[in-house]
Amino acid sequence: MNQQIIRLPKALHSEVTAHLFPDEGPQPERAAFLLANRVEGKDRGIFLGYRLVVVPEDAYLEKADDFLQVKSEFICEVARMAAAESAYLIELHSHPGCVRKVGFSRLDCAGQARFQKYLTYKLGGPPWGALVFGRESVSGSVWLPGTESSLEARVQIVGENWQEFSNSQEPVSLRFDRQQVFGLQAQRALASMKIGLVGLRPLHKAQILEETPFAFDFR
Amino acid sequence: MSNNKQFQFKFNGKLFETDKPQLNLQELRQIVGESQSPIVRKDHQGRDERLGEHDPIHLGHHHGHEHHKPEEFGCDPDFNRGLQTYLEQELELIGSVFPNAQHLGGGVVYIPKHPLPEGVYNRPFTGAFVVVPPLGGRPDNFWVDPGLTLADGSLPGNFTAQSSIAGRPAGFFSWHLKNWCPGGVAGQGDNMLSFLTGVKRRLWEGK
User: Fold this and answer.
1) What pLDDT was estimated at residue B92?
2) Which residue of A has its CA nearest to B37?
3) Of B21, B56, B79, B118, whose CA is between 20 and 30 Å from A18?
4) Where are the domains of chain B?
5) Which domain holds residue A118?
6) Which of A106, A120, A128 to mutate to test the interface with B (most CBs of B within 10 A)?
C-alpha cells in the first residue's frame, strides 16, 4: 500500500483546532483522540475520523508550553471506548510554538513507540494514526499491522473546499481534486497561476475568465 | 514428550507459557524480556491495573480448559508528548556518550549499565537514572537500580535504599554538582554530560 491518508470532515477539523488552539488564555500543548473508521483501497488506506475525544483538564499529569503527559487511566478509557465501538484510534496533540511547519519530535516518536506496544496489548495492534498540529499546519503518521515503524500520512480536510497537508509541504487546496488530471505537483503550480479561457461554448462569444486557483470547467 | 508449560498468559498481545501457576513481577519481566516499563494487567472489564513489585500474579491453567482466556498484561502507556527542543538537545548529547541511554519520559533518563569501581560495591554495574531539568534549571540528585550496597553490605552516605523514580523502585543519592553554569543552549556551558561526569565521580568515591 503506497499512500496513507487521514481524512477529517471540516467541522471535525474545526472542533480539533478550537480545542488545541483556543482563542483566549494560555497556550500549552494539548492532546485529544479521534475515533476513526478505515477504508482499505488497492493503493491507499484512508482513516476517516468521525469523533473527537478531548483530554479533559483533570486527565493531564502535566501540561506545559512544550510538554504534556496524560494519565494512564484516561488512555485506558480511550482504548476501551475504541474497542467498544470497533473504531480505530488517532492520537493528536499540538506544538503551539509551530505555525506553518510542524513535525513529530523525538519525544513524540519515543512516546509513539510505547503507545504502539500499549495498543497491541489493548486493541490487538495497529492500524492506528497520529497527528501533530501547528497553528497553520499538521503532520500525520500511521502504523499498519506487521510493521513497527510508521508511514507518513497525508492529512485531508474535506468539506466544500478540500485542503491537504503532507509532512514536508505547504497545505494545498483540493477544491478541484476531481478534475485533477495532472497530479498534485502540477495542481500546485497551476493553483498559483491566473488563467484565461477564450471563446468556449456555450459562451458563444469571446470571454475571458480569470480564476485563482485554477479550474477546468469544460461544459 | 509432555509439555510442562501448562500456564499461559499474554504480554503486549503475544502468548507466553510457563510451568508456574503464579509469578512475581520480576519473573514475569524475565519471561517477556521487559526490564523497565511499569506493567499493567487487564481486568475483566478491560481496565488496567498496575502491578506492584510484590503482587502475586496468578495465571490460568490452559490444558483441558479450551475456553479459558489467558491473563493479559502489557506496558503502561506512559503517554507523554512534546516538542522540548532543549530536552531533545540534552538527550542527543547524552546519547552521544551513552548510546544505550533510554528516555523514560518527563526528562527521566536511564543509563542501563553504568560501570562501578571494582570491588567497591556489591555489583560491577548499576543502572543510573538522572532527570534533565527544564531550560535554565539545575539537575539535582540521581537514582540507581534497587539493591545497590557497598561491598561490605553497608549503604553509601546520603543514600536512601528504598526510593523510586518514574514509577520504578530505585536507590536515591542525594547529591548535586557544587558549581553549575549552564550556557542556555545544550552543549554550551554545563549540561547533562557534566552532571553525569559528576555522577560517575560520586559513585567512584565508594563511600
Assistant:
1) 86
2) A114
3) B79
4) 7-75, 85-205
5) 3-175
6) A106
The tens digit of pLDDT for each residue in A168-181 reads 555 555 554 545 45
Shared-domain flag, residues A149 and A74 = yes
Given a contact cutoff of 8 angstroms between Cβ atoms, the answer to whether A30 and A94 are in contact is yes
The Cα of A12 is separated from the nearest Cα of chain B by a number of Å equal to: 22
Mark the ranges of chain B whose per-residue pLDDT is less than 50.
1
- B75–A118 C-beta distance less than 8 A: yes
Inter-chain Cβ pairs, chain A and chain B, closer than 8 A? 111
pTM: 0.67
A98 and A162 housed in the same domain: yes
- Interface membership of B11 toward A (CB under 8 Å): yes
B18 touches B32 (CB < 8 A): no
Give the total number of structural domains in chain A.
2
User: Per residue in B44-70, pLDDT tens?
Assistant: 888 999 998 888 898 876 655 555 788
Tell me if ipTM is over 0.85. Answer: no
- Look at B73 and A121 and tell me if their CB atoms are within 8 Å: yes
Contacts of B85 in chain A (CB under 8 A): 66, 105
Residue with cell 471563446: A199
* Per-residue pLDDT tens over the stretch A190-199: 666 665 555 5
Q: Do residues A7 and A60 share a domain?
A: yes
Question: DSSP for B57-72?
Answer: EE-EE-TT-TTPPPEE
- Tell me, what CATH number does A152's domain have? 3.40.140.10
Shortest CA distance to B146 belongs to which of B66, B63, B36? B36
Do A162 and A205 sit in the same domain of this protein?
Answer: no
Residue B70 sits at the chain A interface (C-beta within 8 Å): no
Q: What is the pLDDT of residue A49?
A: 97
Bond prior to A202 in cis (omega within 30° of 0): yes
What is the distance in angstroms between the Cα of B115 and the nearest Cα belonging to chain A? 26
Set of cell numbers at residue B4: 510442562
Ramachandran assignment for A86, one of left (phi > 0), alpha (psi -120 to 50 degrees), beta (any other) = left
Residue A98 burial (CB count, 10 A): 18
